[in-house]
Amino acid sequence: MKNDKKPGFNLNFINTNRSYFFLLLILFCGLFAKNFFSAYNICAVTGNGSLVIYLGLGFTLCLIAGHMDLTVMYVSTFASLLCLGLRASSGLPWAVCILLATLSGTLVGLVNGILVTKFKIHSFIATLGMQFVVKGAMYIYTGGAELSIGRDYALNEALNGTVGPLPVSLFFLITTAVTFLLMAVLRYTAFGRNLCMIGGSLETAWLAGVNSSLVTTMTFIISSTICAFGGALNGIYSGSASITMGEKGISPLMIALTAAIIGGTSIYGGKGSVVWTWVALVAIAFLKSLCKKTELQVLVIAAILIVCIFYETLAKYHRDRVVGTRPNLRLEYLNESRK
Amino acid sequence: MPDKKAATPQNTDAQHSDSSAFSRIFNKLGIYVVVILLILLGMAVSGGQFFTSGNIQSILEAVALIGMVASGLIFVTYSGNMTDMCIPMEMAFAGMMTVQCINFGFWAALLAGILTGALIGLINGFMIGKLRANPIIWTWGFNLLLSGIVRVVWGGKQLYADTVAESTDFAQRSAEQFYSISRTYIGGIISLMAIVMIVMFAIAWFIHAKTAFGQKLKIIGTNYDVARFSGINCTATLVLTYVLCGVSSACGGIFYAALRKTASYENGTGYDFSCLTAVLLGGVLLSGGKGSVVGAFGGVIAYGILNNILSWVGLGTYEKYLVQGIVFLFIVWLNTYSNRKLGKA
Questions:
Q1: What is the CATH number of domain A39-290?
Q2: Which residues, 6+ apart, have CB-to-CB distance to A148 below 8 Å?
Q3: Model confidence over A35-61: pLDDT tens digits?
Q4: A37 reaches B (C-beta below 8 A)
Q5: How far apart are CA A194 and CA A147, in angstroms?
Q6: What residues of chain B lie within 8 A of the CB of A136, using their CB?
Q7: CB pairs under 8 A between A and B
Q8: ipTM confidence score
């Protein structure tokens, strides 16, 4: 149909791909900063930003399903503490430590899922409570002390080291692999499509015969598992773990939320992509290296977040105002195009 | 009382099963039963020292700030918007503004702080009432923006009233007056903060039970669309709701800044969670449209006594998190469960 072709500048295209434009903008601004594009800086920035990428993935997954998971940050911190603590106390091999730490995340995700699906508590409130349970458990486990990797530098160096000619660390490569794996799960499996469906419309999903309780529980489990895995790896990558990890300056949870929304994940559920979140988080990591002062980082990130939420809200407001006012809009359109 | 009329049909329903009778009782004034049980537990745990004036004083002081904030938060929860995540920054910002304006005199500084809270509430109310933003995500994001603004404007520093005040006699006196508001004791036991909290709850009770605004809010909280189609000005009502929440949070923030003698951007951290716990403990439903200010007051008291008992048992700040989280989840579950049993899911 010739009417489909819109002339000139397409705003919708920019809106859909806003995370890519955001990344390009940050990289362009990087041209004016000193040593911004050096291999060392890129390696450090992407490596340090990897933990937040895991949180962002988990958060996006829950947001697509129409839920919110506030526990992601504490789950990852707890996993990193558990991973380093197990290694120090019992000398298990790293693989077992990482596995056990990841399983702790799975457990928290299972509890979250049961609270949301069986006890019918709103996910925001349920995870708000779980956040404090995990926080308390964390303090009881460590007694408030900081755990360190000791002299086991082998895996730490492997994660920090670059692979081949690429200027990024192994940790970031693993993160990227997880992201694209998750994207494949969301796009090509029945589970992924069901996830999008229950986020878009729970009623439609029910009519289509989707077991929404199972899918929601699985979503929380996957989200927490990914965050725990990321947290365990980050503990090894940075060589130390403390209970206040990531609480200095801006909360990683807020960065995850910001990235999910900048990336175009709908705050009403049903739409979104983990790759967009990944791009937005890489951009935010570069942004953090661009402006060094914490205060400025908070302001810039918050301003971007608020602009995105405002835009989405306004768009929905205008959409809702049209609903019901002209019920035969499609017929009018067809009549006009026939003429 | 409109509540009694509403309870009559539930009475007949309740005879059918025990569980819904339990739910109904819990939803009414069950929280005061919990308060009495907690007091008995406290007497057992503390070994008779529970009713010493020092202990009552510390409970009231700990409760006062939460109570002030909760007296405004109850309207937001009641209107069906769950919670206001802006509370930490409303408190912190109001405290900062009060300390910054201390040179213009004590009362002008208080006014500046309260107006700050009202302005933040106004913006929230416009976004949520007029543009129908997602209440949680908007207030959460706005909280971050305010935190960024406060950090950039004051450079991430802490403010002290006596250093901000100029060396004139007037400014120094108002700074001293500012510090003293959290340390005034009436009759030697009850602090001024507790009195202010009770007065604020009385005002909240009046607004909630006796004015047209409270009735409108009940309809909005029960069903937004019905309220809109029956000709209620939802925008104005929700704006007023958030302004009330902002003002009460600002009051809490000012007293907090005076109590700690510093105003900084992290002043109100954690208050969003504890105030929500207190409000939910008092039987206000998360889905909105049900609950009472009297119940919420009981919730605040119960929360304070619970914390006090945990201290008597010997738990540190961090072990308390675990218990508080579990209590919170249990209360929310009971809240949702009783709601579903009454057929109001």
A1: 1.10.3470
A2: A84, A239, A240, A241
A3: 888 888 888 888 888 999 999 999 999
A4: no
A5: 41
A6: 318-325
A7: 134
A8: 0.88
